[in-house]
Amino acid sequence: MKIGVVGTGIFATDAHVPAFEQAGNIQVTAAYNRTKSKAEKFVEVASNGQAKVYDSIDEVFSDANIDAVDGLLPVDNNLELVKKAIAAGKPLAFEKPIAHDLDAAKKIVELTNKSDVPIMVLENWCFHERTLKMKELVKKIGKVELFLYQTTKPFFISKYHQTAWRQKPKHIGGFISDGGVHDMAFITEVLGDVAEVNARTSQLREQNGDIDTLNAQLRLESGAFGSFTYAKAFGAADSTLSFQIFGTEGSVVFDGNSIVLRTGPDGNDMSSETFELAPESVNGVVSEFKNFTEAVKTNDKSVIVSTPAKSFHHFATIVACTESSKKNGNTVQVSKA
Amino acid sequence: MKIGVVGTGIFATDAHVPAFEQAGNIQVTAAYNRTKSKAEKFVEVASNGQAKVYDSIDEVFSDANIDAVDGLLPVDNNLELVKKAIAAGKPLAFEKPIAHDLDAAKKIVELTNKSDVPIMVLENWCFHERTLKMKELVKKIGKVELFLYQTTKPFFISKYHQTAWRQKPKHIGGFISDGGVHDMAFITEVLGDVAEVNARTSQLREQNGDIDTLNAQLRLESGAFGSFTYAKAFGAADSTLSFQIFGTEGSVVFDGNSIVLRTGPDGNDMSSETFELAPESVNGVVSEFKNFTEAVKTNDKSVIVSTPAKSFHHFATIVACTESSKKNGNTVQVSKA
């Protein structure tokens, strides 16, 4: 598959290019970046300088030689990218979050629902082994009643902090929605959609550009409820990612490394099984490009796992949390596309 | 110190009597129970049959030979017990929760505020080594921003399930408030009072007589926020008790066994220290009776750690959670005494 890369930043070089090779035969044959010299540097790494460097996004979509476009632009460009893909009839995969606000996100869902062009949101957490395994195991614990999800870290200055659109985010929720949609993908792939939220937020670090600490209570469409904590701006702290799910007939707990399934009706009758996860599967980017390749080759959008509709929900849940926080934690319904 | 025990049930025999010996020189010299034969059986164990068995609570309070009364009646008797203690000028310690509803709890706080008679709520979690250690360590992590508190268990049928007042609880919150006030004591001794709550509840087991699963989001008076989960009615699950506190300059995490303090401004500059807790200190009942003895001997109510005012707050927070749950999770302020 021949791909044109639009937006040749850090993540394109560090994550997409290695995944193109591992996912199978994806060749970079075109590239565009607002700063052209960066695109030229990118094609050296990504295609030994063989790919064409274009002066506009439209030229990439018009290139009859490419099979699909990979979009990694700042998030407020995503709607425009989707429009161009549909107009050109060219399959598109673009990075999460789906959009910078709910209106743009809704339009993306509407447009992609009406079109047969395969359009996928690159939400790699939909493809993690841990996500797939939890989704399988949760069926074995009876009715799910409660979940506790937390991702916490101390503050680290990273290479991504230098990115202008992260420092002065145009998208709702900024730091929180950029990362939090991943976690919402994990939660909702396993437990289904979120109906309502109550949330509190704060900003601990100026460098994060926006609120960076979120604690939320989610009520799911299923009736189950639980906590979602996304907080990565503390002083010294352990880095945690844990997802505990409790049901009437057992529990499934991911502690960041492995998954423990416990089954049985109560504390007097329990059995347990531990599932170790392969470390190389954590990234999920390879799997998402395999999925995208399949959709492009079969020209069938129905095979796409991380659809715009799902990504809308991940983003809408984070947006609902920011709204609840502004309403002193009161209950806010998650918008539907 | 000579004590009269009013209400000679399981907890009096299993927890108070051993603590009387370990706390120092507390002798059971009087006892009362609605079913007199139970009181007679109790004094055999508690005093080798030496203590007097009375036919009424009033007779216990009138006994000039006793220094104080230990009350373990069903919770809806607590207000009456407090009135009798104040009328008799006899120090009283009685078991949590403070009362069966907020009105009775408020009256207890009002009456004890006006009286100099030492009156203490037996909230043993105020005396746990883990509580005291967390309270000390939390001062070292800068401004507290977030906490995550969870206590989860699979369902176990216990000897307490047979108790009539637990099966058909008269007190608000029933199962949840009976246990949850302990956890609120732990949280608030360490982090201060709760201002507002959002909560979801459910009942998984008929045997628990009332809601038995609670997930809440708490905003503290300090401005910090976090999650409080009390859920002990699942199918097979690990038993957990964990309390994570995150601040601008570090974190303190209790995992059920030990406490880890991490200090430093961010993820690049961290140091940590682990504090093991002595297992024998878990119960706290010995410490609370030492505290009560001191108050009785000095006739000074100001030395009491687990005051009615504190216990009111623990109970009022749980009550606020049950109210929020009935209001679809919307924000409810915690009542003040």
Automatic annotation (TrEMBL), chains A, B:
GO MF entries: nucleotide binding; oxidoreductase activity
Pfam families from the UniProt entry: GFO_IDH_MocA, GFO_IDH_MocA_C
One term under GO cellular component: cytoplasm
Protein name (record): Uncharacterized protein
InterPro entries: Gfo/Idh/MocA-like_OxRdtase_C, Gfo/Idh/MocA-like_OxRdtase_N, NAD(P)-bd_dom_sf
Organism in which the protein naturally occurs: Wickerhamiella sorbophila
Domain Gfo/Idh/MocA-like oxidoreductase C-terminal: 135-333
Listed GO biological process terms: NADPH regeneration
Gfo/Idh/MocA-like oxidoreductase N-terminal domain location: 1-121
Top-level division of the source organism's lineage: Eukaryota
